[in-house]
Amino acid sequence: MTYELYYWDGIPGRGEFARLALEQAGADYVDVARTDGGMARMMAMMKTKTSGFTPFAPPFLKDGDLVISHAANILLYLGNRLGLAPDDEAGRITANGLQLGITDFVAEVHDVHHPIGVSLYFEDQKDEALRRAEDFRGERLPKFLSYFEKQLAKNGQGQVHALCHALSYVDLSLFHLVEGLRYAFPNTMAAAEPEYPLLVALNAQVRDLPRIKAYLASERRLAFNEQGIFRYYPELDAS
């Protein structure tokens, strides 16, 4: 059965975490909002008044009659089905916990450029964003990256993985996280990356996976831009 992924067209966003897992697994899926009439279908699903689960916002995944919302929850569901999660319950819970940590960090990245409200333009909250960016670069970014670096260090020598010496959806998500940070904060990341060699190694390792390499070179891969979570505003980056 074909998975149906629902997310806004034109931005990688939170939907990219699910896309990377589906692509790496070679799963049969459709990115619904990018098909003819897909956006209307997505909006209709969020407004349905019929019985059953109604998602609040994308991303959400439809597998038959089942609808799963939120990136971490989608990956918890897909993990075993795609061979991208540990087989044991403890491992799956650990993977979900790490993914939820990534979710928390992504929310903080977003709030750098929109610290007051999502309904306001960046220019309407620029002063607050400048203050938020300084704290983010100096405190929050190193706090989160250090945490993930320590997790990678637990798995010894050889290839770098977040869990169990095997590729998981957490590795794919950390790849996307680093890519997004490099786009949004290029100067900050250039200075910081020597402190996180395992995250850098994992990023390169995932980029070189045959299916991921093919995906990144395809039209299915959406470019970062100033409409998504990771946005580049030079004044928010380190000089």
Please explain how this structure is put together.
- This protein has 239 residues and is an alpha+beta fold.
- It has nine helices and four strands.
- Helix 1 links the parallel strand 1 and strand 2 (29-31).
- The longest helix has 28 residues, at 126-153.
Short recap of the structure:
This protein is an alpha+beta fold and 239 residues long.
List keywords for this structure.
single chain; 239 residues; alpha+beta; Glutaredoxin; Glutathione S-transferase Yfyf (Class Pi), Chain A, domain 2; four-stranded mixed β-sheet; 4 strands
Write the CATH fold name of the largest domain: Glutathione S-transferase Yfyf (Class Pi), Chain A, domain 2
| Secondary-structure element pattern, one letter each | EHEHEEHHHHHHH
Content of β-strand: 5-15%
Amino-to-carboxy terminus distance = 49 Å
What oligomeric state best describes the polypeptide chains here? single chain
Describe how the helices and strands are arranged.
Blueprint: E1 3-6, H1 15-25, E2 29-31, H2 38-47, E3 60-63, E4 66-69, H3 71-81, H4 89-113, H5 126-153, H6 169-184, H7 186-192, H8 197-207, H9 210-216
Parallel strand pairs: 1-2
Antiparallel strand pairs: 1-3, 3-4
Helix pairs in contact: 1-3, 1-6, 1-9, 3-4, 4-5, 4-6, 6-7, 6-8
